[in-house]
Amino acid sequence: METWIFLSQIFQIFIAFCLFTTLYGKGNPLRSFAEYSYLAAGTAMSVMWAWNYIRDHAIIGLQAGEWIWIPAIILGLMMWFRIHPKYSYISRMPIAFTIGIGMGWTIRTNIFTQFITQISATIVPLFDQGAMWLFERTVIAVGIITMMSFFIYTTEIKGPHLWSATFGEYFMYLAFGAVFAGTFMGRLGLFVGHMQSYMFPVWKQPYTLGIAILVFVVMLWLDRSGLGEKLSA
After folding, report:
1. Whole-model pTM above 0.85?
2. Which contacts (CB < 8 Å, 24+ apart) does range 214-221 have?
3. How far apart are the C-alpha atoms of 109 and 84, rounded to whole Å?
4. What percent of the chain has pLDDT over 70?
């Protein structure tokens, strides 16, 4: 293994454990160093991706005679007026143009994914694919009807409406719990995969353990000496 690859792997492990010190709940320079490192790396990568996109599309497109890129370049340059206090109002035009197009695309996508597709998925026959499908679709239908009744505020909630609204409320609790559990398991899976990258190949294990212990000891020393909060930015 080349030396710079080895050093980059060790540095990645060190940065990761420095960032995990935020779970300690107190500021320390290790966490600040890790956060600034991630921000600097992310900013540099964003700048490089943006430049590559401009080069591969706008510049090469203009060389190929695609003059449609001229308005895009002009609008992009107008955004730089944002840093000038006197002429910052000029940047509002490309920003408004970009937000408007983005909202148009987002609304169009949301109409299909969050409305039409969701409604189509609930309006399905109940008795065409066996008992299991009957049970699942019955639960979906009952859940949707009762949850919708929970949001009817134009009449007093009493009688059958009260029972339906209460049932729909518990359905929503189940749905929110399932979403939270799925999110938590997804984040846990990302964490496990992230840690596996620092444990395998096997040669990384002693370095990972040593760096974890070193970061933990330094964090405790900074906290007990009172330097953690002072040195963290």
Report:
1. no
2. 215/14, 215/17, 215/18, 215/20, 215/21, 215/30, 218/30, 219/21, 219/24, 219/28, 219/30
3. 36
4. 97
